[in-house]
Amino acid sequence: MKKLTWRELNHTLGTKTEAEVLDMLNEERADLRRIVVLERLHQRYNSLRVTRERIELFKEATTKWKRS
Question: Measuring CA to CA, which residue among 27, 53, 24, 18 is closest to residue 41?
Answer without folding.
Answer: 24
